[in-house]
Q: What sequence folds into this?
């Protein structure tokens, strides 16, 4: 089951993009209550996560990349690609098969 939880509301889908206040899951715009900060939880197997801002927590798996311009990324599951953030820390308790990078933040693995 492929699920995405955004600020406490669960949606079905595999590709997630957040650009400002516009949220797109699998090519469909999703109406989410406007918030200063988005918290995105990944459950099951998802393909790609891309945000302009928002914290991302992976409890399932992501088959491609995770990128965020501003936000924390926590990986408790598996990412079969790269994890990158411009400004935010990356914490990996699971596995990332690609590169991990941040321009302004810390990286903790293990």
A:
């Amino acid at each position: 089951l492929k699920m995405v939880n955004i600020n406490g509301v669960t949606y079905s889908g595999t590709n997630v993009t957040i650009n400002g206040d516009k949220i797109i899951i699998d090519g469909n715009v999703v109406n989410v209550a406007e918030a200063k900060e988005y918290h995105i939880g990944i459950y099951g197997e998802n393909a790609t996560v891309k945000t302009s801002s928002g914290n991302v927590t992976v409890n399932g798996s992501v088959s491609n990349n995770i990128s965020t311009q501003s936000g924390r990324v926590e990986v408790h599951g598996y990412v079969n690609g790269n994890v990158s953030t411009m400004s935010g820390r990356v914490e990996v308790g699971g596995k990332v098969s690609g590169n991990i990078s941040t321009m302004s933040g810390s990286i903790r693995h293990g």
Observations:
- The chain has a mean pLDDT of 89.
- The first strand starts at residue 3 and ends at 6.
- The radius of gyration is 12 Å.
- The chain has no helices and 18 strands.
